[in-house]
Write a structure and sequence with these properties.
The chain is mainly α and 200 residues long. Helix content is 74%, strand content 0%.
């Protein structure tokens, strides 16, 4: 995994050098490498596809205009780009006062398939899904964001801290606090499934 990350970073840095030298194709390559993951991030933090697409576009425009500010000694390109995207998502949901998004989208829940099972089981799973979604809607953005970054995008706590502009211990404690709040909100209903999903 680390070797793959190092290879990805080396490729990114080579492309970024080309971008800084004026190679327009380099920008296209960076966009193709990261557009899907930035869109998934924005779509989990915002409520509509249209707003997510707008924020993705804004994020890439800003990143490309400021590519000379990227410092590979401080962060990977992905972390730097996610920082830009999260900041723009925050601006968007402050402007629009979004309700919080569904957890099944944010955390890409994979509830057991109900195909071939009893209707009662399928209904119970649906109820759990709804309860978990409601629980996440109640989380404040400063708890929801690190949760999404951790579980939907698999980022390390160090990367989350860089994106959120806080110490690593703060990022860890926010994810723990989000777990605690979700447990309390769920109050036993579907709790075991929630814990299995979040590995908590």
């Amino acid at each position: 995994m680390l070797e793959h990350d190092d290879q990805q970073q080396a490729v990114d840095e080579a492309i970024i050098e080309r971008c800084m030298a004026g190679d327009q194709l380099g920008f296209t390559e960076l966009y193709e490498r990261y557009a899907a993951s930035v869109y998934r991030l924005c779509n989990t933090l915002l409520n509509t596809q249209e707003d997510a697409e707008d924020v993705v576009q804004e994020s890439f425009v800003y990143a490309f205009k400021n590519i000379d500010r990227f410092d590979s000694d401080r962060a990977t390109f992905k972390t730097w780009l996610f920082t830009i995207a999260v900041s723009r998502c925050r601006n968007m949901y402050r402007r629009k006062q979004f309700p919080l998004v569904a957890l099944s989208a944010a955390l890409q829940l994979r509830l057991p398939s109900s195909s071939g099972e009893h209707p009662e089981t399928a209904l119970a799973q649906s109820n759990v899904r709804d309860a978990v979604e409601e629980a996440v809607r109640s989380l404040a953005p400063h708890l929801r964001e690190p949760l999404v970054l951790r579980y939907a995008h698999g980022l390390t706590y160090r990367e989350i801290a860089e994106i959120m502009g806080c110490p690593q211990k703060t990022a860890e404690s926010r994810v723990r606090l989000a777990h605690q709040k979700l447990r309390k909100i769920m109050q036993g209903q579907g709790r075991s499934l929630l814990e299995e999903i979040l590995l908590i």
